[in-house]
Amino acid sequence: MAPLLSVRGLKVHFPISRGIWSRDVRYVKAVDGVDFDIAPGESMALVGESGCGKSTLGAAVLGMQIPTAGVISFAGEDVRHGERQTRIRLSRDIQTVFQDPVAALNPKMSIGDSIAEPLAIHGVGDAKERAERVAELLSLVGLHPQHAERRPNAFSGGQRQRIVIARALALQPKLLILDEPVSALDVSIRSQILNLLLDLQRRFGLSYLFISHDLSVVRHFADRVAVMYLGKLVETGPTETVFARPVHPYTEALLSAVPLPDPVAQRARRRIVLTGDLPSPANPPAGCSFVTRCPLAEEICRRVPPPLVAAGKQERAACHVRASRLNEEGSFA
Ligand code: SF4
Ligand code: MG
After folding, report:
1. CB 288 near ligand 1, within 6 Å
2. What single string gives the DSSP state of each residue in 224-292?
């Protein structure tokens, strides 16, 4: 199946000034050569520690961040260089839900007006049709249509995130970028919002790019996972396989901190604690970006950046030691 979203060689580098008299321009390589696809109806999670470039990547897909290099195409069309008509259509087809539902809603507008805003901007329907669509969207996200006249402050955090989701769905998008959509919510209501998103995905065949640092959430949510470290993808694969048999030492360390449902397995598991700090993305190590924290590092790791290569049927990993051994021997047990 042709991908809905395809990202190739994506780089987003920010220049940083070292003082007005300095000619030495340095770059923060927030996203540094990323490739991935998302199929129609598929959800892919982008995981990694804060500051690894996940949100910048999401912003580039949304067209809110101009890439330094690379190509992002959506349904076969270039996101950046499209004609005006293409850009307008993409602004309908790709929508976003951010972490903070309080900041996302204008406190002075009724929630009905907020939800109707994208419809009005895109000239969809007349006022009466838009009001009907708002009522439909509110019931879709589990809120009472009679509440459309209320302001955001009449609602809880979880309800506000439902309102934000209703607004994101107003234009019937194909892809939603969910940037930490439940991180700001009480733990008790996170699963309600995640289940709502899963239900909407099934009903409308939506694709999701789910940005999260929380692997226990990702496990139940995403079809595929891409692990990001210092602007690069270090491992990708089906969620189940990556969780069961992580290849990259970084993925392994991240997963070792996620509680297992089975208490026996949990007791038997070794927690891998990473030592060393996350290097600055303005000054990443030569060779493998993970080398300063990797328990398996060898001499080659300091010199040569490992490419993201096949490490199983559908998995890919960027590690000299693990990926090559896996490909030679079929396992690294
Ligand atoms: Fe560790 Fe080397 Fe693999 Fe990088 S390439 S993750 S430093 S073993
Ligand atoms: Mg972020």
Report:
1. yes
2. EEEEEETTEEEEEEEHHHHHHS--SHHHHHHHHTSPPSSHHHHHHPPP-PPPSPPPPTTSPPSS-TTTT
Range of the domain at 273: 243-333
**ipTM value > 0.90:** yes
Nearest ligand 1 atom, CA 296: 8
Tell me whether residue 145 is in a domain. no
In a domain? residue 31: no
155-167 pLDDT, tens per residue? 999 999 999 999 9
Residue 187 lies in a domain: no
Q: Is 30 in the pocket of ligand 1 (CB under 6 A)?
A: no
- For ligand 2, the distance from its centroid to the CA atom of residue 49, given in whole angstroms, is 9
Does the pLDDT at position 23 exceed 80?
Answer: no
263 assigned to some structural domain: yes
**Number of structural domains found in the chain:** 1
Q: Is the pTM of this model over 0.90?
A: yes
